[in-house]
Amino acid sequence: MYKIFMCSLFILFLSKAFAGEVKRGDDLSLEKFEYILSKSMSKLPKLWSVIDQITNQDVNIYITPIEKGLGKARGKNSIYIAPRAFIHDLKAYPEDRLIVVLLHEYGHILFNRQSNRKSNNKAEHEYAAFKYSVQHALRIAEKGDSGPIRQLVHYLPLRVQNGKKSDPHTIALKKLTKENFWSDVLSKYQ
């Protein structure tokens, strides 16, 4: 019985040792951080479910002001999300699109964790992040929620069309949207 108890404690320790957290960024007041946590969990339950899945993969998610965009990834363990994603009703960013933003940033983390991927090519990084977000959104759709994949089907072609040709995001999306994989997504969810 003692061995079972010790094994259970060890497993519990390991699960906590490799879990990240949602943290307050340096430029965010404690009051605003607590407000975000108290109000947005019930308002954005699907987003918080994805946040929980990602933090369980040893990723810290910092809620902190960001100059450009709603999210960014850094290194192998950190994602930064702008407070406005949680506080404001962003008409252009419903919950399903916020999920896509978070999945995209986690795609960067996964790319950075691949030891054989030492690329400085930003378009390659963006391609991996976009592809991961599409693949994960497809898994969500297979479980009955097509919201995130429908956001991707709607917005990715617009980013290709309206993006600057030299922007790594545009280059990555042009490559992704020419693949058979993307054609299959369109045929099912467009």
Summarize the structure in words.
By secondary structure, the chain is of the alpha/beta class. The protein folds into two domains: 71 residues, no CATH class; 72 residues, no CATH class. It contains nine helices and four strands; from the N terminus they run αβααβββαααααα. Strands 1-2-4-3 form a four-stranded mixed β-sheet, covered by helices on one side. The termini are far apart. About 6% of the residues have low confidence.
Which structural traits does this protein have?
single chain, 190 residues, alpha/beta, 9 helices, 64% helix, IrrE N-terminal-like domain-containing protein, signal
In short:
The protein has 9 helices and 4 strands; from the N terminus they run αβααβββαααααα. The protein is an alpha/beta fold and 190 residues long.
